[in-house]
Each structure stands twice: as structure tokens, then as C-alpha cells.
Amino acid sequence: MQFIHLSDSHLGYRQYNLDERENDIYESFMECIDKIIEIKPDFVIHSGDLFESPQPSVNALRTAIEGFLKLKEKNIPIYLIHGNHDIPKSQQKGRPFGILKKIVGSSLKTFLREKSHVFKDSVFIGGIEYAPQNKIQKSHEDIQKIILDSKNYHKKILLFHQSVTPFMPQSFELQITDFPTDFNYFAGGHIHQRALKPVNDGNSVFSYAGSTEIMSVSEVSNYKKHKKGFYLGDLSRDFDINSVEKIDTECRNFLTDKKIENEKDLKELILELKSFENNLKKPILYCNVSENIFNTSLEELKSLVLYSRFNKIDEEGFESISFNENNIEEVFQEYVKQKEMPVDFVYQLYKKLLESEKECIEYTDNYFNNHYRGQ
């Protein structure tokens, strides 16, 4: 019995505010769907952040529907939990998973009310929704209920969307000791880099499937080592880490380690970029440029890439940054996203600070009233 574990698709994310990058996100997701159909697993689990926003765009919703209906046509059910990006900020707003369930039907199982499902009377699948730090006690309660409900099953999977110590040493959310010891597979989301580790003396596997596309430049080095994609697990025999296989997908090329100190370096980089011309997708370039070259024309270089960001290095080694179209807003938002802070809140707070102190205070107070107080 085989299953697929994928996570953090972030459908609708517009990196650098570019249509091309939004489309890359959709294409990566659909590539995963097509590979899943080729593999023909028994079921699929998704560990949250299907969408970038709890109010997804029409294109994002359409892509999710198209992908899930393809799986339904092949009789492959999907088990899906809410990540932090899937949850509305206000309880009055509807959840996009409700729309998906109405269209996809019983092939899609979620865990908002029911904390567990059973696949063909043999595989127990528990799921805990994402919880902020102030609500983490609810996650502990859900885990205890899942443990009780799963006691009569031998094949068990637990979905979660949190950072977990010691796999994320600075996590203040969950500890690996919070998880049950008799589950086969812990299917994690929220962390965009892949991780696969044996736990419980090798009798269980702890996994972060990672994001299905590069969502931040901070993910590039890990992508070069471990790629993106999903995991394929096999429960038909004794389950251990050797029962899990990594399935890779391809992302747009990011060139992040380039340096131009002189004209020779510039010409060599231009030649390298021209080698991508047969590729339908132009690469993305992050480059350190010496001051004397920075002040010359870099237009030919820019024409060969989808997006470029240059760090100017002066003679004393100090850096300043040149943005595409001087768009500081997208740089700010990308930085906030890398730090796993609530992007919308931080960015709106930043804009309110520029407008008036009173609006800033009101905005902050309303945000914390809705998300933290009285919980």
C-alpha cells in the first residue's frame, strides 16, 4: 500500500510580484499531480499551505480544483490539513477548503472537525491543524484524542503543520516528545526544506516534504542539494526510513552565487546566461558586483534573466542593493516571509507607521484582539 506526501504548494504566491513566478507555482503543483498519477498510489496526504492566502485567487483555486479532480478521476483520495496560510484571519470569512470539498466531493478529506480518517479500514490517518503559539494547547489535546482513536490500528500516519524541536532547534511550538511513539509516519508541513529522519528507535519516520517550488532565495542552496517534489511511502511491508522514496521535480534556475569584479567576469556571466536561451524559462539572478562594474551598463545582463538583484560592493567591501525597478516593497515582503512572520500583518503595520501613529496603534490592537486575546 503506497501513499504520497506533499506539502506547502502555496498556490497563488507571486514571487517578485511576477506573473511568471505565480505560473511557476502552478506548474510545479501540476507536475506533482501528473507524477502522482503515473505512480498510482493508494492515497495522497498534503500537510498544509495548499494556498498562499486563505482567500485564494481564481487561478489558484482553479489549479487546486483541476489537480484534485485529476486525482479523483483515478480514484486517489486526498487527505488535507490547514496550514497557517490556509486559515482566514477572521472566523466570519469562509475557508477555501469548503469550496474544494463541494467540488471534489468525498475524495477530499479534511481535519477541521474530524481529527482522523481511516483509509480502507486499515490505515489510520490523524491530522492536527496549524496552531499559533498561544493556541498550541489545542494541538496537544488533538494529539491525545488521535492517540486514543488510533489504538486499534497498526498502520498509522499523523499530519501536522508546525515547527518541531529538535528538527527546528529554535521552535517554541511542538517537541518530538509530544508525538505518539507507535505511528509509522509523521507527515510535516510549514518548513520548506526537505527532511527525513528515523525516530522512535527507527520504528517511525519523521518527515517534512518541503515546498513544491522555491518560495524564497533562502531555499536555493537546499534545492540544489535535495531538489523539490514529494515523498512516496510504502506501508505494504515493515515500515522504516527505507520505505520512503524521494520523488523530484524541477524548478526555475536560480543563480545566487555569482560575482562580477571586472569586465572579464561580466562577459563570462553573459555567455553563461546565453546558454539558458534554449530553456523556455529565463533564470533568476542574484549577483555581487564591484563598484566600477556596477556603474557601467548591466542592461544586457538584465535582458537575459527573468529577475535580477545586484549587490554593489565598494572598494572597502560594503554592500548596497539594487532592486528590480527599485521595488523595495517586494524585498521587504520576501524578508518577512523568510523569517516566517505573518507577512500581511507586518507589511500593513509598516505602511501604517508611515501614515500615522494612531492608525498603527488601532491596527495592531485590532489584529491582536482577533488573533490572541481571549483565547
TrEMBL record:
The name on file for this protein is: DNA double-strand break repair protein Mre11
- Please tell me where Mn(2+) 2 binds in this chain: 49, 84, 161, 190
Please state how the activity of this protein is regulated: Nuclease activity is regulated by Rad50.
**Signal sequence bounds:** none
| Keyword Cytoplasm on entry | no
- Stated EC number for the protein is 3.1.-.-
Cofactor(s) this protein requires: Mn(2+)
Which Gene Ontology molecular-function terms are recorded? Answer: 3'-5' exonuclease activity; DNA end binding; endonuclease activity; manganese ion binding; Y-form DNA binding
Instruction: State the family it belongs to.
Output: Belongs to the MRE11/RAD32 family.
Q: Fetch the SUPFAM superfamilies from UniProt.
A: Metallo-dependent phosphatases
Print the keywords alphabetically.
DNA damage, DNA repair, Endonuclease, Exonuclease, Hydrolase, Manganese, Metal-binding, Nuclease
Q: Gene3D superfamilies attached here? A: 3.60.21.10, Mre11, C-terminal domain-like
Q: Which residues are responsible for catalysis? A: 85 (proton donor)
**Binding note for cofactor:** Binds 2 manganese ions per subunit.
The scientific name of the source species is Methanococcus vannielii (strain ATCC 35089 / DSM 1224 / JCM 13029 / OCM 148 / SB)
What binding partners and quaternary form does the record give?
A: Homodimer. Forms a heterotetramer composed of two Mre11 subunits and two Rad50 subunits.
Q: Detail which positions bind Mn(2+) 1.
A: 8, 10, 49, 192
Please give the biological process terms from Gene Ontology that the record holds: double-strand break repair
Name the CDD domains on file.
MPP_Mre11_N
Any idea what job this protein has?
Answer: Part of the Rad50/Mre11 complex, which is involved in the early steps of DNA double-strand break (DSB) repair. The complex may facilitate opening of the processed DNA ends to aid in the recruitment of HerA and NurA. Mre11 binds to DSB ends and has both double-stranded 3'-5' exonuclease activity and single-stranded endonuclease activity.
In this chain the Calcineurin-like phosphoesterase domain maps to 1-193
